[in-house]
Design a protein that fits this description.
The protein is 26% helix and 25% strand. The chain has ten helices and 18 strands.
Length: 488
């Protein structure tokens, strides 16, 4: 049964690094404990039930920083010594279920179950594992836990999925010393291995060519992992297209036409287990605009979209850096994702409840008012027109494909939609660049899916508009801090 715990637990979450860190070799082996569990509920109810336990290969995380120093994520897993209660390991994360519970279906009481996993170093002695959830209203809820005996026969030691190709795209050092990124190929058939290798090389170049990864490239390793699919691409439900693929990625996740996720967590984890990883990227063999990112779970992007580079960088900002979306006009499946009157934990948006202590105060451009006035009304008018036309074009494409319209007709609609998006991106870039506030750090209203009441650090950023551009200073600092947490 769920119960709200005291404010003391909230303080522990917000400052987990206050717990005493323990020597790795005293409590853990250099292998990985994978805990699979089922996450069930709706907007009000939530339950966790353990599925399976696995002993897997080398533990890739840092040995010297086992307690999570960041307050990000709606969920927390903690490992303690059952005899002393000492905190030995913790990790914050978000989940597919965590996003589902913000939807209209969850609000209506529709129960859903999602399969999820957490990874931690393999214990030498019994370990108490506890899961908790932090609501966006500030309350913390215990979800249950388990005491794990490392000698238990319930811990599976079966090998990782077979028939998987692993490509070392860039190796910066030993797994414990660097950030290990695994890029999983999805929707590549056995005849498309060469395509996968080329796409992997491109993705590696994009990531390592972008700050703060460029200046930290010796702290990063990237490996490609491919489990071949029977079909190319992925599912597109609104267009009536379904593919048999290795990881089960699909468009229209949570009802959003461009949101691309997978619910087949077991397939993802079994495939990824062929290499050490701290962060997962799923690269989809498709040319349609689509992607998604969930903190400390995975991100997805379509490798052959004209927007592929942007999608990879933007979605990785979510899944790895814990960054929030800074845009506010595009449709989403979420309801009240950020409750009014609460400061979001995300490092790059604020409710500005106290302008004198904004979380990026040290980066604010001298003389800049908080909140910072900007040419929002005209931007909103133009962007609103774009979003309406975009929705019409996407619906027309879906209707044409489902009705079996000639390929030439569908191609024209797709080209029209691409041009419409590109033209708007050019306009937005020019409009924001010409503002008197361009390049300055302040607090600009409009962020986190809300036109009012939430603020972003700069007018434009990789997390705001659809184009490849630098992270703003606030986002770059947050992402670099995450890189360093795996390497120092």
């Amino acid at each position: 049964m769920l119960r709200t715990v005291s404010s003391l637990i909230v303080l522990l979450w917000l400052a987990p690094c206050a717990a005493a860190e323990q020597p790795f070799d005293r409590y853990f082996e250099n292998q990985t404990l994978r805990i699979d569990f089922h996450h069930t509920g709706d907007a009000e109810r939530e339950f966790v039930a353990i599925d399976r336990l696995y002993r897997q290969g080398e533990y890739s995380g840092p040995k010297t920083r086992l307690v999570d120093p960041f307050p990000y994520g709606g969920y927390l897993v903690e490992a303690r010594d059952p005899a002393t209660g000492n905190l030995l390991f913790s990790k914050g994360f978000d989940s597919y279920f965590g996003e589902y519970r913000t939807t209209a279906g969850a609000a209506d009481g529709a129960l859903r179950t999602y399969h999820e996993s957490v990874l931690l170093p393999f214990p030498k002695q019994p370990l108490r594992i506890d899961f908790s959830a932090r609501r966006r209203d500030g309350t913390v809820v215990e979800l249950g836990g388990i005491t794990i005996d490392p000698e238990s026969i319930e811990i599976t030691t079966e090998p990782a999925a077979r028939g998987v190709l692993v490509v070392e795209s860039h190796i910066g050092g030993e797994p414990h010393e660097v950030l290990d990124i695994a890029i999983l190929g999805e929707g590549y058939t056995g005849a498309e291995v060469t395509t996968f290798r080329k796409d992997l090389a491109r993705a590696t170049e994009v990531l390592l060519g972008h700050e703060p990864f460029a200046k930290n490239r010796t702290r990063v390793s990237i490996r490609g992992i491919l489990r071949s699919s029977n079909d190319s691409g992925c599912d597109e439900p609104t267009r009536g297209i379904y593919r048999e693929t290795a990881l089960g990625v699909t468009f229209n996740s949570l009802g959003s036409e461009r949101y691309m996720l997978t619910e087949d967590n077991r397939a993802v984890r079994d495939t990824a287990a062929n290499a050490p990883y701290d962060a997962l990227v799923i690269m989809v063999n498709h040319d349609r605009y689509g992607g998604g990112g969930i903190y400390n779970l995975f991100c997805t992007f379509t490798a052959h979209s004209k927007w592929a580079d942007y999608l990879l960088l933007h979605e990785f900002g979510h899944s790895f850096g814990g960054l929030a979306d800074e845009y506010y006009s595009s449709s989403t499946a979420y309801n009240d994702f950020y409750p009014r009157g609460r400061e979001p934990e995300d490092p790059n948006i604020t409710a500005l409840l106290d302008p004198g202590t904004v979380k990026w105060q040290d980066l604010v451009t001298p003389g800049t008012a908080l909140p910072t006035p900007w040419e929002k009304a005209e931007y909103d008018l133009k962007d609103g027109e774009y979003q309406k036309e975009r929705a019409k074009l996407n619906q027309a494409i879906a209707d044409s494909v489902r009705s079996g319209a000639p390929e030439e007709s569908v191609a024209k609609l797709k080209a029209k939609e691409e041009k419409h998006a590109a033209d708007h991106a050019v306009w937005a870039q020019k409009y924001l660049a010409e503002s008197a506030w361009a390049g300055k750090v302040g607090a600009f209203e409009g962020a986190g899916y809300s036109s009012q009441g939430l603020y972003r650090p700069t007018l434009d950023c990789l997390m705001f508009s659809r184009r490849v551009q630098p992270f703003c200073p606030v986002c770059e600092r947050a992402v670099e801090a995450m890189v360093l947490s795996y390497t120092e």
